[in-house]
Write a structure and sequence with these properties.
- The chain has about 160 residues and is mainly α.
- The protein contains 9 helices and no strands.
- The chain has one domain: Hypothetical protein af1432 (Orthogonal Bundle), CATH 1.10.3210.
- The chain is about 75% helix and about 0% strand.
- Helix 2 packs antiparallel against helix 3 and helix 7 runs parallel beside helix 9.
Length: about 160
């Protein structure tokens, strides 16, 4: 089902290779961190689905408001994610949690679960690179956001060493 979801998101963002590559990278980091942190199979399914659709709100926000900052993504994304996940026959539990994660993936307080924490870390790993953030900003994000040992190691090795 995860591969079908990836292909649905590729179609959703057809013609926008940046968005496609972004969610593919976030998914890859989320899967890596989730596996190395040994999260449960149920949490992994939810995490992977959330990583794939986390930015689904960008396109409708742009169409509706002409901009897509984080809060608009959180507002517009859940309904689109729910529709896509229902169409692909994901369970109601997965759909509900993914919807919650999409609605909060730019909210960095009250992180309630490994799936949420790992999604945030994975998105930051990709965004720090895509936005060419400074070492100082990477260190600040590492100190304030990262909690998993795997995420900390990835962030440190990618942005702070060498």
């Amino acid at each position: 089902m995860i591969n079908k979801l990836i292909m649905e998101m590729v179609r959703f963002y057809s013609g926008d290779p940046h968005q496609i590559q972004h969610f593919i990278k976030v998914h890859a980091y989320a899967k890596l961190i989730g596996e190395l942190e040994k999260i449960s199979a149920d949490e992994m399914e939810t995490l992977e689905a959330a990583a794939i659709v986390h930015d689904i709100g960008i396109k409708p926000a742009m169409e509706k408001y002409g901009q897509s900052h984080g809060k608009l993504q959180e507002k517009e994304g859940p309904a689109h994610a729910e529709e896509m996940l229902k169409r692909l026959n994901f369970s109601e539990n997965v759909i509900a949690r993914v919807s919650y994660l999409v609605a909060h993936h730019h909210t960095y307080s009250n992180i309630d679960g490994f799936d949420y924490q790992i999604l945030i870390e994975s998105d930051f790993l990709v965004n720090l690179h895509e936005k060419k953030e400074s070492k100082k900003n990477a260190q600040s994000v590492l100190d304030k956001i990262f909690k998993t040992e795997t995420g900390k190691a990835l962030c440190t090795n990618m942005f702070l060493e060498g």
